[in-house]
Specification:
Largest sheet: 10 strands, antiparallel
Radius of gyration: 47 Å
Structural class: alpha+beta
Helix content: 40-55%
Strand content: 15-25%
Number of domains: 2
Distance between the termini: 123 Å
Order of helices and strands: HHHHEEEEEEEEEEEE
Length: about 300
């Protein structure tokens, strides 16, 4: 019913049920269409925003990867300098230099395949940069491991050589004059018999200090017929030294001493014509000339 506000007559408008249904249907379609378009527009806006965020993140990551690769170039140069030092250390340690092909074990990509390789390749330029960075890191890691193993070998060898040098007699045990050399046979000054002289005699004032010619352990402190007061030291590596005719012994059995440490005083005990030191060096249970173990420039510990 249409009723006017004024004095006009009212009118009746009849609408069929089919028309109403059609009208409702069209309205629903239009509303649904606007809803779908609105959701699509909002989703597109969100996607565009998200894409921009991802692009910005990818750009930042790409820049960071590039900086990492530049820093790895510096690390590669540092490892190269280490390699040069490592070769010098191996020579000093008495080892053969590392073979060039072994050093190059840290160059190039890893053998075989790994799951991330294809995934990174599929990511475009950023993925290619990430893949290159991964290969660089793997190469540097392998090269560093090679250097560590080689330097450990050189360190162990140098430590062993240092111990051997510290244990090798290199100085005259006392200050004096060489009065009798090492010889296979000589006439004994008191017994007047021909017998081996397995050391050297150094004439020195009574009470002059006797120093250890190298680091070692005192193995004997005793009186021996003919030698008088005698000190025996074991230096390791098959080296043994003996000091006879001492007036006083300043060390005890089992004591560890260093090169240059005072171990006794010159005397004339046993069969002796005057104060002197009888000094012997034994190598693998055989006497050798002690003068071979007196260096012009003494090794200092």
């Amino acid at each position: 019913m249409v009723v006017p506000h004024g004095s006009g007559s009212s009118r009746a408008v009849e609408v069929s049920q089919t028309f109403v249904k059609a009208l409702v249907g069209i309205g629903s379609v239009v509303a649904l269409t606007f809803l779908v378009l609105g959701v699509a527009a909002i989703s597109r806006g969100v996607n565009i925003t998200h894409s921009r965020v991802l692009e910005n993140e990818n750009r930042l990551l790409a820049d960071e990867i590039q900086r990492m690769r530049e820093r790895m170039t510096g690390l590669r140069d540092t490892l190269h300098r280490f390699s040069e030092r490592e070769q010098e250390l191996r020579l000093l340690a008495g080892l053969t230099p590392t073979d060039t092909t072994v050093q190059q074990g840290g160059i190039g990509g890893p053998a075989g395949t790994w799951s991330e390789r294809d995934s990174l390749k599929a990511l475009g330029p950023g993925g290619q940069q990430a893949l290159a960075a991964r290969l660089d890191v793997d190469a540097l890691s392998r090269r560093a491991n090679i250097l560590v193993r080689s330097l450990n070998q050189a360190y162990d060898s140098l430590s062993h050589q240092r111990e051997r040098l510290a244990a090798t007699p290199s100085i005259m045990p006392t200050k004096g004059w060489l009065t009798s050399a090492f010889m296979r046979e000589r006439i004994h000054p008191i017994l007047h018999l021909a017998r081996p002289h397995e050391g050297i005699d150094v004439t020195a004032p009574m009470g002059a200090e006797i120093e250890a010619p190298a680091a070692g352990i005192v193995t004997e402190v005793r009186w021996e017929e003919g030698y008088g007061n005698i000190v025996t030291m074991d230096h390791g590596f098959g080296l043994v030294t003996r000091f006879a005719h001492c007036s006083k012994i300043l060390v005890v059995r089992g004591q560890r001493v260093k090169r240059g440490q005072k171990i006794a005083l010159v005397g004339s005990t046993g069969l002796s014509t005057g104060p002197h030191l009888h000094y012997e060096v034994w190598v693998n249970h055989k006497p050798v000339d002690p003068m071979k173990y007196v260096l012009p420039d003494a090794i200092v510990d």
